[in-house]
Design brief:
Blueprint (H helix, E strand, L loop, with lengths): L1 H5 L12 E6 L4 E5 L12 H11 L5 E7 L8 H10 L4 E5 L5 E5 H4 L9
Parallel strand pairs: 3-4
Antiparallel strand pairs: 1-2, 1-3, 4-5
Amino acid sequence: MATETRRLAYAPYSGYQVGAALVGVSGMVYSGCNVENASIGLTICAERAAVVKAISEGESGFQAIVIVTQDGATPCGACRQVLAEFNPDMEVYTAMPDGHYARTTVKQLLPYSFTLQR
């Protein structure tokens, strides 16, 4: 699903297309792609697009995310923090279109995330 969604990315400035598939605890999968903007700060990453879609559809617990890029890149810092908000132990699979992938967790990518004090 992440590979398919990557093809829908709107990336006229960087040419760097990203697709994400976020697996909810319900088993539902939510896709997202990056959407660039001429005002670069308003660009939305694929990972955050998938999280927003899931939340807007009533899902708030996540097990894993698959991210597909041309070179298997990991999420940016903002995406790491957003993912950590919901599950620091979430599995993160970064993949390339040819199927090669790596596995890690949000906590490994961002060991000192901001957290809600409960």
